[in-house]
Amino acid sequence: MSKAGAPQAQQVDGTGVEVVVVAARWHEAISQGLIAGAQRALDAAGASHRLVRVPGSFELALAAQAAFAGGADAVVALGVIIRGGTPHFEYVSAATTDGLNRVALDAGRPIGFGVLTLDDEQQGLDRAGLPRSQEDKGAEAADAALRMVGLLRGLRG
Ligand code: DLZ
Fold first, then answer.
1. Mutate which of 92, 98, 115, 119 for ligand 1 pocket (most atoms within 8 A of beta carbon)
2. Based on CB atoms within 10 Å of each CB, which residue in 88, 102, 138, 149 is the most buried?
3. Residue 16: inside a domain, yes or no?
4. C-alpha span between 145 and 77 (Å, rounded)
5. How many whole angstroms from 156 Cα to the centroid of ligand 1?
6. pTM for this one?
7. Where in the sequence is the domain holding 142, given as residue range(s)?
8. What is the CATH classification number for the domain harbouring 139?
9. For residues 105 and 55, what is the distance between their CA atoms, to the nearest angstrom?
């Protein structure tokens, strides 16, 4: 795990931005950390937000698509996928990533990608924005989504 190359954190203005946080239910302790981190970042930016839970990471893309259809300006997608002894890890990870990317491109609206793909639970605890974590991936995903809202508005005029 490394923060090398990560951009410097600067406050982003989310006033008037409607965000839906979609979060999977697998690996709940880590997921709760991601959700809390995303909510902290959205509150700090002044964005409006609500939380929707889905059964697993595979379902995040469909929920994101529905959030955009309902008028969301941005989505923050949060999930935890831990490698098991089966090929399921690769299938779920790839489908989740590809699905979210497709939904964002089809909608022309940003999805902050806060899906952790991990070898073990400890890696997730290290990244979940919990008191002993080194990283806060939920907050990073929320911050990225808000920055993209502003950037896209600037580009589209
Ligand atoms: C099936 C499955 C497996 C093996 N592992 C995870 C995981 O680590 N994290 C996660 O978010 N979801 C997992 N799932 C569930 C799938 O995402 C999906 O919810 C189910 O296959 C039902 O469609």
1. 92
2. 138
3. no
4. 10
5. 37
6. 0.95
7. 45-58+71-147
8. 3.40.50.960
9. 23
